[in-house]
Amino acid sequence: MMQKKLTISIDESVYNGLHKVIGRGNISEFIETLLRPHVIDKALQDAYREMSQDAAREREAFDWIEAHTGDVKDESR
């Protein structure tokens, strides 16, 4: 998943509370967790969850990744 940087303006007391309660390195994840259910299609989330629970599909994806990892690590930079 690609991440994007977002600049927002919030009240100073909210900003200070985020730093105090959540911690500086955890604010982005905290906000994303709060917002995700309101902006991501529930059907899409359910489909991803269902796919991740398909053990055969996950194993096939893992095997494919493992089979191609050597191709990448041997590439010159």
By secondary-structure content and strand pairing, the structural class works out as mainly alpha
Helix count equals 4
Which range does the strand content fall in? under 5%
Helix content: over 70%
Largest sheet: none
Give the low-confidence spans: none
Tally of strands: 0
Give the overall average pLDDT.
85
H and E order = HHHH
| Cα separation of the termini | 23 Å
C-alpha geometry: elongated
Question: Would you kindly provide a written description of the structure presented here, covering whatever features stand out?
Answer:
- It is elongated, with a radius of gyration of 19 Å.
- It has 4 helices and no strands.
- The protein is mainly α.
Could you write a compact summary of the structure shown?
The chain has helices at residues 12-22, 27-39, 42-52, 55-73.
Secondary-structure map:
Blueprint: H1 12-22, H2 27-39, H3 42-52, H4 55-73
Keywords summarizing the entry:
single chain; 77 residues; mainly alpha
